[in-house]
Amino acid sequence: MKRLILPFTVLLFSMSGPAQKAPKRPRVLGISSVEMYATNAVATRSFYREVLDAGGPCHWCEEAPRSPMMVPLNGEQSLMLWSLPTASTSDFLVQITFATDNLAAMKRFLTSNGIAFSAPKGVPEIALSDPEGHRIAFTQYPKVLPSWALVYSTLRVIHAGFVVHDRAAEDHFYKDILGFRLYWQGGRQDDETDWVNMQVPDGTDWIEYMLNVPADASHKTLGVMNHIALGVPDIHAAEAQLRKNGWSGNEQPKIGRGGKWQLNLYDPDDTRVELMEFTPTHKPCCSEYTGPHPGFKP
Predict the structure, then answer these.
(1) Residue 195: enclosing H or E segment and its boundaries?
(2) Of all residues in the chain, what percent carry a pLDDT higher than 70?
């Protein structure tokens, strides 16, 4: 059989033709859900019922404990609580899921950037790991909000934080590739950077790098660092409602280094749930805010 030899001019055109245009990143709108481990579903459910203060029929409050347990928030967001897989697990933050306006385009964008992901069949979500192994996911933002959209809490997850050891690697992933932008950074001292807030490119939610954490940090320390924050318009009104709901913690509202009122709560597994006002009332330490502040989205 003779080999097929293409004319030189055709070969030259094939090699020098226009390069394919790289897929454009679709919008990343905010945090859709946060998944965490829980060792005691009943105790954890009781804790979140006090914190969230459901304003209507709370169907998840009374159902039998199961894994995962979905705790709906404001129609756009939810918390997912999973049973602890092994007693040796130290990181109770399982996954942060972001909403995008075009999941199919996000798949093409990640593929074009050489980022591996899993895409379970029949599930409108893709999951992957960032450079330090934190699990994140993207889900399709719903065109129609679910029926429970305004039934449950009016709280909103405005950020989730996790331990970071290599800021440069995380910045390359979140900032350079995914388009996250710096919102604020600061530290316990004015000349330190312990916390870096990276805001989603097309919204106001953010992730928080928790820096300078020892590799052998205790369970309690990791519970403080790997956390979620729920936005409230008035921290003192939120505390009063918490105590009315039965919360009896010793923490008091305080102004954080970022100039916002906040109140730290801890679930039964010592995972921190931070209540934080949407906007600062005092000048922040260390740096100015560089992005829009969040607010409740009904």
Answers:
(1) strand 195-199
(2) 84
Closest alpha carbon to 216 in 265, 163, 160: 163
Angle, CA 234 vertex, CA 228 and CA 236 arms, to 5°: 95
3-state secondary structure of 217: coil
Q: Which two tokens stand for residue 213?
A: 């954490």
pLDDT greater at residue 289 or residue 9: 289
By the 10 Å C-beta count (0-12 exposed, 13-18 middle, 19+ buried), 8 is classed as exposed
Nearest to 159 by CA among 27, 45, 262, 49: 262
- What's the whole-number mean pLDDT along residues 193-210? 98
Q: What's the CA gap between 28 and 201, in Å, rounded?
A: 6
Rounded Cα gap, residues 179 and 6, in angstroms: 44
**Model's pTM, two decimal places?**
0.88
- Asked if 136 and 183 touch (Cβ cutoff 8 Å), the reply is no
